Amino acid sequence: MTATVTPDVDRSAAVLARAAAADRRRARSERAVLWAGTAAVGASILLFWQFGLGHLVNPRYVSDPATIAGRVGELAAEGEIFRHVGVTIGEAAAGFAIGSVLGLASAFALAQTRRGYAVFEPFLVGFYSIPKIALAPLFILWFGLGTAPKIVMAALLVYFVVFVNTATGIREVRPGLLHVCRVLGASRRDLLLKVTLPSAAPAIVASVRITVTRAIEGALLSEFVASTQGLGYLVARASREFDIATVFAGIVVIAAVVMTANGLLRFLQARLAPWHSGQVHG
After folding, report:
1. How many domains does the chain fold into?
2. CATH value at residue 172
3. What's the domain range around 170?
4. 3-class secondary structure per residue, the chain
5. What GO cellular component is one of the record's annotations (predicted)?
6. What is the pLDDT of residues 118-158, one digit of tens each?
């Protein structure tokens, strides 16, 4: 019987190996096509920006990629850009930590009782609908021109996204599942750690990824209004001085910081939660 089964097993293993190799080749080919397409689009945009945009927009009001790259190099050589990047990232990181902790804590506290969530939800939605740019001057009046108003603004933007997604994930747990677990003797702690938290984990992971960029946006928003350091201050100062090259250089650095942070978080999400699609609210 062993002699009869072994060839079949070997053939099955060979078929599976060939299928896996074909899948890897297709995946590599698809990645290569995507990278090539992205590079082609990026090169087209840069070429049009360098040689064509000046014919559509007054060259006084728009810089070109070569000049911007040179200005970024100058700022980097002077060390100024690294100082501003460090300030903005520090403010965003502090706001992200505070907003995430408060969002998770309040979501778990309110979503455990549907009546409590229903009572507070209209107020949270109303406060979230307020334009954040209108709050920035108030935060500066209340907390001064230091890092505090930037951290508060970043935390505010993070809080609502984390809260809404965490509360949604908790509330989507089927009541019947919770009831069955209680019948089987699960304690409140067991329900929280073994049922509710795993069910809400995908939404929490996705909201963490998107709120990192929101935290950077919050810090930049306050820096644009009033600040003495940070990337937002760099862009605002250059704009007041009509230094177009520095304005675009700051914007490019901001985009690079946000894209780098988002790429790192996507990588971590793919490793820690590969089953999740990444859809979030807010």
Report:
1. 2
2. 1.10.3720.10
3. 63-272
4. CHHHHHHHHHHHHHHHHHHHHHHHHHHHHHHHHHHHHHHHHHHHHHHHHHHCHHHCCCHHHCCCHHHHHHHHHHHHHHCHHHHHHHHHHHHHHHHHHHHHHHHHHHHHHHHCCHHHHHHHHHHHHHHHCCCHHHHHHHHHHHHCCCCHHHHHHHHHHHHHHHHHHHHHHHHCCCHHHHHHHHHCCCCHHHHHHHHHHHHHHHHHHHHHHHHHHHHHHHHHHHHHHCCCCCHHHHHHHHHHCCCHHHHHHHHHHHHHHHHHHHHHHHHHHHHHCCCCCCCCCC
5. plasma membrane
6. 777 778 777 777 777 778 788 888 887 788 888 888 898 88
